[in-house]
Write a structure and sequence with these properties.
By secondary structure, the protein is α/β, with parallel strands linked by helices. The two termini are 61 Å apart. The longest helix has 54 residues. 64% of the residues lie in helices and 10% in strands. The protein folds into 2 domains: 328 residues, ABC transporter type 1, transmembrane domain (ABC transporter transmembrane region fold, Up-down Bundle); 224 residues, Rossmann fold. Strands 6-7-8-4-9-10 form a 6-stranded mixed sheet, with helices on both faces. Strands 1-5-2-3 form a 4-stranded mixed sheet, with helices on one face.
């Protein structure tokens, strides 16, 4: 529990930094509304009772002050309504703005290369973090921090109010509220931790599996896994129902506990004021005042029930989100290379986080500015890992990395349900249509796009649906041409292109004067573009050959023909 609460500190700090004034004002208005409500109930009871006794005789009725209590009642009623209205506006506005800032920070954190490389393999997880996990944190302020603050203020106010009737009654009532009622909320929160986490996990699994069923039903049908996927969804739904049942049982138990605590407090107050009234210490109006104060005392504590039930979900969301709230603290360990170099790697040990063993071992390599390098070797030897290391998507565990800014073209580029123009502008948001057409022409795709009914305004489906595989590859290449970075990292750039289009694209890549290129490839035509070829084997540099040497031609001949 203590360890889980430490994850809340960055969230609370963010809340306070972003909207400290609004959050404090919201808590103050909530406390004011509560105090006005309790005071209104107590004063109304006193006034009604006192008025009844004042009407017993003409003399008492004549001297009884009707105006001051009635004015107080009106003031408290209006104040309670205004405070409650203001509290709703201020707290919800502050919460929504804080959550918006939180989403922005999270998105920036997950847009960092190292995080993006990990999250792209589980997009449903990213979506869940940005939606449900962030939404879960609205309970932190609205249903945990504010109600707890208001409840403690209520306990103090009840203690002070009842102390005017009898000091011992006030102290015991305050202790009862803090120990029993607040204790019930704490116990409920601890009991709800496990089912709350299970509910969050089950909800995440249910959504992810449902999306997989809808998006991949064709593939699932082809491999005969539709029924298995439906059973997986049913299993997630069953676990969600079990978690809901457990939380409902806890809620029912806590509700019964609050009802019992309220009844016992009211009974004790009734017996005490009856005894004091019998002794003549207090009158009937004061007794009515004390009873109604005790009657309303547990209401602020009952408001904590929902927050206590959602505490498990809130803590889980905080544990998932807190590490990504400060993306600036993350470092990819990439320095600027010495003048004349595009990159320099020295004694590198690196691999993807999910791999048990590193892919690159004691790896050293450098590239001059403007030089074109082809990296070849069998699948799994570390070519893509090398590109990811240079792009900052993989962090070296040993050695030093120095590299100029890069743009990486992966084997599978992400395209979105948007226009052709929108997909291109991801690379250059300020590019005009003339520049976009130049990039499409460089990628050999301009004629295909111009034949579409709406040209650049043509909408593509999810994943670029509406274009062929080769066209999608060329669209990704066009985005590359829009990126004005000193070095491009190309992972089999002309794969899926026919020989003629592939050669045309490579000619345009070769014309990129002054730009350094690193090409991971199995294809001869791509490697032929390079000034130097290096061979990887087992995560190490096995061979290297410069253009114009027999070794260069020998390495070219080993590659797959065009």
């Amino acid at each position: 529990m203590t360890r889980a609460l430490t994850h809340l500190l960055p969230i609370i700090r963010l809340f306070w930094i972003e909207r400290r004034t609004s959050l404090a004002l919201g808590a103050g208005l909530s406390a004011l509304a509560m105090l006005a409500g309790v005071g209104l109930l107590g004063l109304s009871g006193w006034f009604i009772t006192a008025s009844a006794f004042a009407g017993v005789s003409v003399v008492s009725a004549a001297v009884f002050d009707v105006f001051a209590p009635s004015a107080g009642i009106r003031l408290l009623a209006i104040g309670r309504t205004a405070a409650r209205y203001g509290e709703r506006i201020v707290t919800h506005d502050a919460t929504l703005k804080v959550l918006a800032a939180l989403r922005e920070r999270l998105f920036r954190g997950w847009a960092e290369p190292v995080a993006a490389a990990a999250m792209i393999r589980r997009p449903a997880k990213l979506l869940f973090r940005l939606t449900n996990d962030v939404d879960a944190l609205d309970s932190l302020y609205l249903r945990v921090l504010v109600p707890a603050t208001v409840a403690l203020i209520a306990a103090f106010a009840v203690m002070v109010s009842l102390s005017f009737i009898d000091p011992m009654l006030g102290i015991l009532a305050g202790l009862w509220l803090v120990v029993i009622c607040l204790g019930l909320s704490v116990v409920a929160g601890r009991m709800a931790l496990t089912p709350g986490r299970r509910r969050a996990h089950a909800m995440e699994a249910l959504r992810a599996r449902t999306i997989d069923l809808i998006a991949g039903q064709t593939d699932l049908a082809m491999v005969g896994q539709l029924q298995a996927q439906r059973r997986a969804i049913e299993e997630a739904d069953r676990r969600l129902s079990e978690a809901d049942d457990a939380l409902n049982r806890i809620d029912s138990g806590v509700a019964a506990g609050f009802s019992l605590a309220s009844t016992l407090l009211l009974t004790a107050t009734l017996l005490t004021v009856a005894f004091l009234a019998k002794q003549g210490t207090i009158g009937a109006p004061a007794a009515a005042f004390a009873l109604l104060i005790a009657f309303a005392a547990t209401e602020p504590f009952a408001a904590m029930r929902r927050g206590a039930l959602e505490l498990g979900r809130t803590l889980l969301a905080a544990r998932r989100i807190a590490p990504r709230l400060n993306p600036a603290s993350e470092t990819t360990g990439i320095d600027i290379p010495d003048a004349g170099y595009a990159f320099a790697l020295r004694s590198i040990v690196a691999g993807h986080a999910e791999e048990v063993r590193p892919v690159l071992h004691d790896f050293s390599l450098s590239l001059a500015v403007g030089e074109r390098l082809a990296v070849v070797g069998q699948s799994g030897v570390g070519k893509s890992t090398l590109l990811a290391l240079l792009a900052g998507e993989v962090v070296a565990t040993e050695g030093s990395v120095a590299c100029l800014p890069t743009t990486r073209l992966t084997q599978r580029s992400e395209l979105f349900q948007d226009t052709v123009r929108g997909n291109l502008k991801l690379a250059a948001p300020d590019a005009d249509d003339c520049r976009l057409r130049e990039a499409l022409a460089a990628a050999g795709l301009l004629d295909d796009i111009e034949t579409l009914p709406q040209g650049l305004s043509t909408w593509l489906g999810e994943g670029g649906a509406g274009l062929s595989g080769g066209q999608l590859r060329r669209l990704a290449l066009a985005r590359l041409f829009l990126r004005d970075t000193p070095m491009w990292l190309l992972d089999e750039p002309t794969e899926s292109l026919d020989a003629e289009t592939g050669r045309a694209v490579l000619e345009r890549l070769a014309a990129a004067a002054g730009r350094s290129l690193v090409i991971a490839t199995h294809i001869r035509r791509e490697a032929a573009l390079a000034d130097r070829i290096v061979v990887l084997s087992g995560g190490r540099l096995a061979a290297s050959a410069d253009r114009g040497t027999p070794e260069f031609e020998m390495l070219l001949n080993r590659l797959r023909p065009d």
